[in-house]
Design a protein that fits this description.
single chain; 4-stranded mixed beta sheet; about 100 residues; alpha+beta
Length: about 100
């Protein structure tokens, strides 16, 4: 999986360095959820790190745009991304524009 340069990070993520290290080496982190953009379907998905490294998703080319501890925080982080995109006047129908 690829990560964006300016990763969106939830408040509860303690050690970002360890999280990034684990994601780059396909190591699941307990309670970690990722906001992943899949260009082939042009959509953003919220996936647990355990689910992200399953056979189903391993073969797909995804870009991790954000990380959060817990599903609720991941949803809040996605809402924050949308709010920031709206403030910047980006196209809200295009998830790739939310990551800029």
């Amino acid at each position: 999986m690829q990560l964006i340069e300016n990763l969106f990070v939830g408040e509860s993520v303690g050690n970002l360095g360890t999280v990034v290290y684990s994601l780059k080496r396909d190591i699941p982190v307990f309670r970690l959820y990722c906001l992943v953009y899949f260009a082939d379907r042009n959509r953003m998905e919220i996936l647990s790190s355990k689910e992200l490294f399953t056979k189903k998703y391993r073969s797909r080319k995804g870009i991790i745009a954000g990380v959060a501890m817990g599903r609720h925080e991941a949803i809040d982080l996605l809402c924050y991304m949308l709010e920031e995109a709206a403030k910047a006047g980006r196209d809200l129908t295009d998830p790739s524009a939310w990551m800029q």
